Amino acid sequence: xxxxxxxxxxxxxxxxxVARRFAADGDDVALFARSSDYLSSTxxxxxxxxxxSTLPVETDIAxxxxxxxxxxxxRDAFSPVDRLVFTSGSPSAGGGIVDVDPAGFRDVIDTxxxxxxxxxxxxxxxMVDEGGGTVVVTSSGQSRRPSEDVAYAAARHGTRGLVRxxxxxxxxxxxxxxxxxxxxxxxxxxxxxxxxxxxxDRWMDPNQIAERIHDIATTPGTVHANEIDLRHPRDEPSF
Length: 239
Description:
The chain is 46% helix and 18% strand. The protein has helices at 14-24, 36-49, 64-77, 102-130, 150-166, 170-174, 191-196, 206-218; strands at residues 4-8, 28-33, 53-58, 83-86, 133-139, 177-184, 187-188, 203-204, 227-230.
């Protein structure tokens, strides 16, 4: 049976690895991102390498209309959504409460927290109607520890609360919808980070993370997860 998977936040690190892993199973995979050129080339590469079908959908998740339109595009091209993997980051605001620019704070919250809410709302609505599915929202260790970067921390703490609250919704449990907050507590290997931090030596392979996400999404059975953390074997837990 062909499944429809949406990967929201496809970039040269984890998002593209996740899309490739699900397409390797023959899934119909929709890729959401703002960069149309990167999105199209990545979708074409995955389409050529895997048995799955890919659909690049240029999407600004900070825009409610764009998100609603993107999911309608997926439904028209494939089917209602069976799986959502939300890997999107956010713009940088920086600074503590007395330094952060209010407009920058708003942009971070609107992209990361409200963006996750918009995508979850669309995907979960499909899953409840269709009788099950899985959403995985990736985050960092700052989703459960203090940080002076008030915008970054607030967005990630909020996202954690959003996803964890889904486990308390009886309608989702009855519909066999699994919602997982996945903490990637380490450095994901991607070219931009390697260039900036050439001395760092504890990189997490995005393909291996994608494999874990695939396992979570495809084998829920009678055991659902709600929060999982991943780290490099030489990193100490940050909680």
